[in-house]
Each structure stands twice: as structure tokens, then as C-alpha cells.
Amino acid sequence: MDAGVIQDNRIPREDKARLASLLSERGEWASCSRVEPLAGDGSDRRFYRVHLNGRSLIALISQRSGADLDEVDSMWLIGRHLASKGLPVARILAARLDDGVFLLEDLGRVHLHDMARRFASSARIQGLYRKAVELLARLHRTAPDGFSSEWCFDTPQYTPQFVLNRELLYFQTSFLQSFLGLEAADLGLSQDFQALAERAGEERGGLVLHRDFQSRNLMVHRGSLWVIDYQGMRLGPPEYDLASLLLDPYVMLPDRVWQPLAELYWERARPILGRSRHVFWERFQTLALCRCLQALAAYAFLGKEKKKSGFLEHIPAGWRRLNQLLQGPAGRTVPAFRKLIRRITSHAPSMERIQRPR
């Protein structure tokens, strides 16, 4: 076995050795003709397309954290659980958990995001998203059966404290303070954010969310949609995933497209939601606001701190979505925050930074 066969200098030597070892173990090293680095996501994981004789597979390499349970374990445990429920996820073909290496079924190169941007016809887009909503409702109906919070490396549940720290205060520090340069003492958001976190993180019991169910985490393969990046699944409100999909700044679906799709989800998922349609819409708006703040924080943090500049281009769309949400029911519950956003909108230097991020 010689890892030097993988010639691409963009691939770290340690990754070459790990891939060569696992492929050799499977008897596939001799048929490996090329290993192609792929663009990653917002995490530090590395992805490769491994070209074998007449076929390919995906290699994922994640650094072990040393904790009793980390992202590698969650990927393995949750991935096998979802597959056992017949949900469309990439099959885990092989794994060496100690090294953080997975070999996965190759689902191709086309994301729902790519398809949505390609088709100008709203009817065509709505057809794709209808499939996504049907899949999401199916996931929410079937995944809770047998799911264990002990599989969740990144907190087992979407709680008020999680919402406050990982979404609302993340937005305050990464977007308002770091990206826009505002002073924390001038924000006055504590009361609004605490109340919003309590509403969003309300204990529901027995429900799960993917937490990043958006257009870049759905692959279009063999005419169907497939779910990826599921290792962050945990107990929590399913409406959060619906907001992640339909109000995704990567695509910015118009109201005439996403609103009927939200109604479709309500019909399909009603057996597990257990509440009135009015309460469903109320929770959807609340969780959509939290998701939007998390997304804007991530775009700013990844773009500025992690130097992944491609994320910055989504800030203008995320800002538009935020203003739309604040004009609705959720905005009335956070008066101080809504006032701050209006102040930022009237401040030319801040808006220049938002509209032309760099």
C-alpha cells in the first residue's frame, strides 16, 4: 500500500494515509484511480470523491475531539438509525471511527440549491420543494421511533438555554458586534432574547429536528431527494426544520411559493404536532426568527473569522428575510430588537456593510 498514489497536493498527507488504509482493508485500493477534493461546508470536515473502476464513493474525514461522544459517533449512530427507518440518506459503506473516516454512497453533485437556482419557473421550484416538504414530514414522523438523545454530540435537546447561547447570543456577538461593530452595552436585547428563547425552546417531548435542513443539505439523485449532514439531529421542535427549508436565505422563496408548502407540511405532520393550526403557525414564526438569526451569525462568523468568504454573499438575503419576519407576528414579541433593527436600517454605514459584505 502506497498513499503516494494519491498525487493531489491539496490532500493532507494524513488524509491520504487514512484513505489508503481503509480502501486497502476493503480490497479497493488497487482500483482507485483518483481522489478528488470537494468543497466543504461550514465545518472543518474534509470531503473527497474517490474514483474507482467505473464508480465512485465519497470519503468524509472528521477530526476526533477526544470527548466520550463527538461528531464522528453521532454521524455513525444517527446515520444508521435513519437508514434503518428507510429514510433516504447516503449509505455508510465503511467507517473507521477511531480515525474519523467514513466511506459513503456517492449521491452525485447536484443539491436542491442548485436546482432551485437553475429553474426560473416558480411551478418547477414548487414541485421540487413539495418533494422536500413531503420528505421532511416523513422524517419527523418516523425518526423519533427508537431515537436516543445519547447519540447527540452537540447537546441532546433544543432547550431555551441552547437557543439563547447558540442562536441569539451568537447573532449578537458574531453579527451585531463583530460584523457590524456595535457595542454590546448599547444593544438592550436581554429581555427580548430571554423571552424569545423560552418560547422557542419549549419542552415538547419525543420530537426531533435535523437543525440544518436546508437546500444545500438535500441532494438530488436518481430523481429523488436525499438528506445529508444529519449528525446534528437532536430532540426539539420540527417546525424549526420547516423554517430552515422554506425561509432559507440561500434560495429566498417568494411568499406565494413557501406559504402553500408550509400548509402542506401542516397536513402531513399534523399527527405528531398535536396542536391547532394557529399554534403551528405561531411556533413556525418564532422558530423562523431564531433560525434566521443563527444563519446571519453563521454567515458573518464563517465569512469573517474562518475566512470562508463565500458565506458573506448571503448576508443581504438573510437581512431581507429578517426584516420580513419582524414585520410579522414574531416581530411584535421582540419590540426592543425590532427597534434596533430599524435603527441599523437607517444607519448608512451599517447598511453599506450589510449590502456589500466583504
Automatic annotation (TrEMBL):
Superkingdom classification of source: Bacteria
InterPro entries: Aminoglycoside_PTrfase, Kinase-like_dom_sf
The Aminoglycoside phosphotransferase domain, residue ranges: 35-267
Pfam family of the protein (one): APH
Gene3D superfamilies: 3.90.1200.10, Phosphorylase Kinase, domain 1
Protein name per UniProt: Aminoglycoside phosphotransferase domain-containing protein
Organism the protein comes from: Desulfacinum hydrothermale DSM 13146
